[in-house]
Amino acid sequence: MGDVYARLAELGLQIPPVVPPVAAYVPAVQTGNHVYVSGQLPMVDGALSATGLVGADVSPEEAKELARRSAVNVLAAVEALVGLGRVAKVVKIVGFVASAPGFTGQPAVVNGASELFGEVFGDAGKHARSAVGVAALPLNAPVEIEAILELA
C-alpha cells in the first residue's frame, strides 16, 4: 500500500477534523483488528455540502462528489481513532443514497467513495460494498457512507 500519508499529499487531500456525531453514537470504534466507522455525511466545516434527493434536487454527478466527501470523513474518523497508517485493508463500505422516485443510479453515486479508497490505499482499498437507495437520510443529506476497515 505504501505510505498513506504520502499518497494523501500526492492527491492533494487534507484530512479534516472528525465530524462530531449528530446523535447518540461515536464516529468509529475499534474491536480486535477492525475499525467500524459510523455513517458519515458530506459535511464540510460543520455543514452539509448539499441537501435533498439524488435524481431530483441533487444531480448524480454532484452526489458522486458528495460520496467522495463522505469517504474523506470516513478517513477522518479512522485517523482520529487509530491513525490511517494502521489501515491494512478497506473491507466493506455501505453507501446510502437518498433517492428520488425512480432513481436507480446508486452504484455510480457510491463509486465516489469506492474510487477514493482505491486512490488512497491502492489494492488495499478494494472492498466489498452495498449501494442502497433510501427515502431520506439524516439532516436531509443526499448520501451517507459507512465502512469496515482491517488494521495491520
Automatic annotation (TrEMBL):
InterPro entries: Endoribo_LPSP/chorism_mut-like, RutC-like_sf, YjgF/YER057c/UK114. It holds the Pfam family Ribonuc_L-PSP. PANTHER family: ENDORIBONUCLEASE L-PSP_CHORISMATE MUTASE-LIKE DOMAIN-CONTAINING PROTEIN (PTHR43760:SF1), ENDORIBONUCLEASE-RELATED (PTHR43760). This is RidA family protein.
